[in-house]
Design a protein that fits this description.
With 143 residues, the chain is mainly alpha-helical. The protein contains five helices and four strands; from the N terminus they run H-E-H-H-E-H-E-E-H. The chain is globular.
Length: 143
């Protein structure tokens, strides 16, 4: 079966990771983002797990702010290596990010990048705007 011309091939693993890393690098000091948010901003909505893999496989000594990436509940995700959760919490606290009951308040500390994409759980900015043109038939009124 021939490929559809409007479907691009999936990116290679290294290209995917490069896009994820580029988004994570943009998270400002004192802000956090979720795995799902990073995936969406990298162009791969609903692929939060890939973000986790990309963070897990960072080389030792990487300057990428991996500690600013949290799960959807605002929690530090468990790691295979013991103690890394504490390292992440310490790095977040050093940036002034408070953890209450092991969670970060995403409303307060969540990163809101300047983009047309909505953050998970938010309505799109374009949804509230009236449309300039409509393809729907005009409504008929009784009269």
């Amino acid at each position: 079966m021939p490929r559809r011309p409007d479907v691009s091939p999936p990116p290679s693993a290294s290209a995917l990771r490069a896009r994820i890393h580029a988004v994570v690098r943009r998270i400002p000091r004192g802000k956090v983002a979720t795995y799902g948010q990073i995936a969406a901003l990298a162009g791969f909505p609903r692929h939060a797990r890939q973000v986790g893999y990309a963070m897990r496989d960072l080389p030792r000594g990487s300057d990428l702010p991996w500690h600013r990436v949290l799960n959807a509940r605002g929690e530090v995700s468990p790691r295979a290596a013991v103690g890394w959760e504490d390292v992440q919490r310490d790095l977040l606290e050093q940036e002034g990010i408070e953890l209450a009951r092991e969670r970060v308040d995403l409303t307060r500390y969540g990163w809101k990048p300047r983009t047309g994409h909505a953050r998970p759980g938010e309505a799109s900015a374009a949804r509230g705007k009236p449309r300039s043109t409509s393809h729907a038939a005009p409504r008929r009124t009784r009269g």
